[in-house]
Amino acid sequence: MLPKDKMDKNFFQRRFNWSPNMAWKKILFSAVSALVIGTVIGLTMIRLFASSEIAPTEVTQVPTVDKDDLQIEEKDNPTDQTEQITIPQLQGFVVQLGIFSDEVNAEMMIQELEITDITPIVWQQDGEYFVFGGFSSSEEKAKEVASKLEAQGVESYVKKWEAAEKQVAFNEADTEWVQNFIQLLQTSIEQGNISQEEWKKMGETEVNSEHLTLLINSIQSEVAAINTSEQANLFLLSIWHQLGQIE
């Protein structure tokens, strides 16, 4: 017969089907299960936190521009607008030295001429190149210039010269300058003389148009070289021609 303590132990093992090895297995299984579950939960939480920190991609919508709004912006920017200005009919009397169908030949004639005090200009019109050695609002004064040229051995003749009135579109920011320029040119031609101070001021004004910038550069360079009335009148003819070339 077994002692009482062993009998109780055997009874307990048989009653609950328990053994020391089975206890360790259950403990080990519980620990591994807890570790696996904890790892899975941890990874899941990390993914949740990581995804919450990433800002969703925003879709930027391109605003549509209404045609009326665009027109308002254009009106607010006068440098992009143009205005029609009338270039009035101008006329006078030129001293013509020659006419060519080729600009090169016209320039060659000027280089070959031995003329003192003046430099003839080339005027392009209707596919032809005219060489002018003088200009005046008065036919008599134009003939006086022709006589001086003939005394230097240069053949010439006087004829009336005019340009028809036309409309030209200029930048709105430059319209005041253009109007003042046309008025000064017209007055100078009619009076037959120029005010160098007024023309110098015209050449000191800043403009936006490229064509007008070239015109201003010509004014600056040519006005400074004027010493005689013949030079002054040829200056007016040159500036008149450049104005007529602007379309």
TrEMBL record:
<dbReference type="InterPro" id="IPR007730">
    <property type="entry name" value="SPOR-like_dom"/>
</dbReference>
<dbReference type="InterPro" id="IPR036680">
    <property type="entry name" value="SPOR-like_sf"/>
</dbReference>
<feature type="domain" description="SPOR">
    <location>
        <begin position="87"/>
        <end position="161"/>
    </location>
</feature>
<dbReference type="Pfam" id="PF05036">
    <property type="entry name" value="SPOR"/>
</dbReference>
<protein>
    <submittedName>
        <fullName>SPOR domain-containing protein</fullName>
    </submittedName>
</protein>
<dbReference type="GO" id="GO:0042834">
    <property type="term" value="F:peptidoglycan binding"/>
</dbReference>
